[in-house]
Amino acid sequence: MAPAAAAEGEALFRQQCGTCHSVKRDDGPRAGPSLHGVVGRKAGSAADYEYSDALRKAGITWDTATLERWLTNSNEFLPGSVMNYRQTNDTVRREIIRFLQTSAAD
């Protein structure tokens, strides 16, 4: 990813998600779990966070498609989850997902 695009994704993540989530390896949970390494991780599986039953039992693995659906409308995608997030802007969702794919994987 080009540096300008990476910076945009990071800025959007901080603005939209950063209050509740971190992507740093050694950060613990905030209001939500750490998203370090979230792409490829089973939903509701980070050891240091207490998830809703809906997320623990969802049986999904976070990838581009599941993150897209989740960020579009988390409550519609997975009723019973605690997180309430709805992003109607396709570009914002894509940039956040792209940031998670690159920055949360190290």
From TrEMBL:
SUPFAM superfamilies: Cytochrome c. Keywords: Electron transport, Heme, Iron, Metal-binding, Transport. The keyword Translocase does not apply. Pfam families: Cytochrom_C. The keyword S-adenosyl-L-methionine does not apply. InterPro entries: Cyt_c-like_dom, Cyt_c-like_dom_sf, Cyt_c_1A/1B. Residues 24-44 are annotated as: Disordered. Residues 4-104 form the Cytochrome c domain. This is C-type cytochrome.
